[in-house]
Amino acid sequence: MAKQFLGKEVVAAVNSRIMADVAALKEKGVTPTLGIVRVGERGDDLSYERGAVKRCETLGVAYEKFLLPADCTQEELMAVIDQVNKNDAIHGVLIFRPLPKHLDEAAVIKALDPEKDVDGITDGSMVGVFAGTNQGFPPCTPQACMEILDYYNVDCTGKKAVVVGRSLVVGKPAAMMLIKKNATVTVCHTRTVDMPSVVKEADIVIVAAGRAGVVDASYVREGQIVIDVGINVNAEGKLCGDVDYASVEPIVEAITPVPGGVGSVTTSVLIGHVVEAAKRKFA
User: Fold this and answer.
1) Fold that domain 140-263 belongs to in CATH
2) How far apart are CA 140 and CA 119, in angstroms?
């Protein structure tokens, strides 16, 4: 039976670190503040917003919402981005995506100040990830994966790591962050030939394929650590990951569950970025 890498344990450690930083900032008269920009009322946006707001309240971080109707104009949205960029009391900004199709999402992302890009969506933040610098912030989900590996004392140095998925949201930045930890990294995708044999060679596997149960027992071997980023709903209406947990868990050394794994850590990483943005501003 595999060891479960539980998100709640990592969250507790990350939250403890955040609360210490918040206390230190408040002693200086600074309250870290998140600006939430939401267009319309998509169910998944509202769910994530509730989680972020609750985590803010738990950790002593303030928030301000900037809500626009789904039929807002590009000009109205750009005005809000300009507003949050110029507001020194807002240290980090979360923009819910995807935006409605009539809006130019690329223009919105380009307009956001990378110093406030706590969700890692701007080109400036991507440069920071790929160059290994502190410019902007990495996307929250791949950083959550790194927090899990760190908490459970997984030494990546010299290890073979495979990332399944090549999106800019998870796959590519996760690969760069593993390289920074001195792992030897392979990225698999839909054009990878004989993916099971490639994944089976890895010591560490991060799965962000965007498809339920794509990694099953044929992909894994004993001794592997599997981080499942996927969030899907199966035929029974239950949340499940990109890994077929039932077949993989008995084989590997350790695995993150879904739910209860990466997702819960991601929200704390987001709030941690807000606090870090405030620290950088007042350093």
Assistant:
1) Rossmann fold (3.40.50)
2) 6
The residues spanned by each domain of the chain are: 29-113, 140-263
Distance between CA atoms of residues 42 and 50, nearest Å: 12
DSSP state of 19: H
**Two tokens, residue 245:** 């947990």
Provide the whole-model pTM. 0.94
Distance, C-alpha 162 to centroid of its chain: 18
* Residues whose CB falls within 8 Å of the CB of residue 34, separated by 6 or more in sequence, listed in order: 52, 56, 61, 62, 63, 64, 90, 91, 92, 93, 94, 118, 270, 271, 274
Helix (H, G, I), strand (E, B) or coil at 230: coil
**What's the token pair of residue 83?**
């507003």
**In the predicted model, what is the mean pLDDT of residues 43-62?**
94
Rounded to the nearest 5 percent, the helix, strand and coil shares of the chain are: 45, 15, 40
DSSP structure string for 22-44 = HHHHHHTT---EEEEEEES--HH
User: What's the CATH code, domain 29-113?
Assistant: 3.40.50.10860
pLDDT grade, residue 237 (50/70/90)?
A: confident
Work out the average pLDDT over 193-213: 97
Q: How many CB atoms lie within 10 A of CB 82?
A: 13
Side-chain-facing half-sphere of 7: CA atoms under 13 Å: 21
- Cα gap 35→29, rounded to integer Å: 19
